[in-house]
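During the no-cost extension, the postdoctoral fellow (Dr. R.K.) reprocessed legacy sequence entries with the updated structure-token encoder. One reprocessed record is reproduced below for audit purposes.
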Amino acid sequence: MNPQDSVQLDDAARRWMSAVTAGGLGARLDAIYAEAARAIAARGPACWASGRCCNFEAFGHRLYVTGIEAAHTVAQWNARGAPLVLEQVEAAETVGGCPFQRRNLCDAHRLKPLGCRLFFCDRTASQWQTDVLEELHAKVKALHAEGVPYEYAEWRRMLRRFAI
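Re-encoded structure tokens follow.
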């Protein structure tokens, strides 16, 4: 049974989930993520695996995602057998972090959205990050233009819409 079957998704969230699981947008999103991986490999920004980037409140930033990015992450996470639960999201909000962070590491590293993939503490990469993110976000936004609602919202707020 799909964990999402037990939760009442709003219309947009239902459409995003369907688009990434049955509509082929998940594979196309993965292709955009592969572009991000190539850009990262070419630039080589430093990552100290400190976990600071996942602690949004302490680091002083927010992660924003599109609906299909959140749906894609949740669909893959849930396929692992331990569905995203509301308490997990609420606990992360309470401490100011990400529901997928465990100690200083990301439990959803291979599943994470574009903003996570392209955020590095490396100060020499800040303009590079912005440029690549804007270019690839335009491609993600274009996927939405193919018939699914576009919404760009804070990560945890978006995850709440899919949690059981």
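The chain has a mean pLDDT of 92. The chain is about 50% helix and 5% strand. The remaining legacy entries will be reprocessed before the final report is submitted.
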